[in-house]
Amino acid sequence: MRTSLLRGALATTLGLAGCESVVPVDLPTHTPQLSVSYTLSNQAPPTGMQDFFDGRSLYVSTSQNVGSINRLAGRADATVELCDASGQVVEQFRPRGRGGYGSTDSTKGYYVPVRGYVGQPGQRYTLRASAPSVEAVSAALTLPAAPTIESGSYALDPAQPNYQYRGRLTFNIRDNAATTDYYLAYARVLDATGQPIGTVQQEYGDRNNAELAIKLARLDLSWPGYLYQMLPISDAGRQGQRLSYSSDVYLSGNFRGNSASTTPAFIEVIVSSIPAETYEFYQSIQRFYDTEGNPFAEPAPVRSNIQGGYGLFGGATDATLRFPI
Known about the structure:
The protein folds into three domains: 1-28, no CATH class; 34-142, Immunoglobulin-like; 148-324. 10% of the residues lie in helices and 38% in strands. The chain has four helices and 17 strands. The radius of gyration is 22 Å and the shape is globular. It starts with a strand and ends with a strand.
């Protein structure tokens, strides 16, 4: 397969205005393979905000040639099983509907578990997936031990109007000195009854201005709905040290009125211990997006732990800490 790349923009960048050429490029032969994304957790999706961790749900599609301009489409004909260390099937999945926009068919590709199984820390699991016309794929991981969250607090900024709910969030992770560990952190807003009513958003100005090496080494709040805002951290080189979070945040949700049922009452911090493979996947996503399409940037391939295909079989062992606002 051959395609042409217009080099005019590149020539302008190099100061060679007026020099354009069309260069034929041979694209490699592509054999479609299964692409799978699924994260196993030690808990069911948090009640009241099922979409908060929707990014952990199973999604299956087929890979495309690098030169394809078609929209990636999921497939609803896959068979996916989760097995424990003995090879016993502990979870199966079925296709599910998902709301779309206009004529977009967004039901294909998404699956839900049928047994309600939750992962057990320290146990080894294998994910297997197959579909017609492509080779079967698999991936394995060990679900890590639960993290330990130390005391946290949230202080409203007295200079801000109350309805803006801006303030400073602080919490600490007590790290294990004997192992290399990897974490993701999230936070959400609860009402007085403990029901989720919103999310905690980090002020990203300082992070966006930081160098990539600093961003990859600091503890930040992740937003599970967007790959670019999945912000993992490693304790490599600082095992046993306390990992601290302290940043300006704002609360986002439907609680601008005076009704007691919609007044923010608690913040719940969720910290996930993740396997090394999950950390490497999200770290590679950060590096990929930070190249911003720059052709002169160091190559930033996205990692995959799916044998025979592409994607992520991820793990997340969650711990939570709830404290009043």
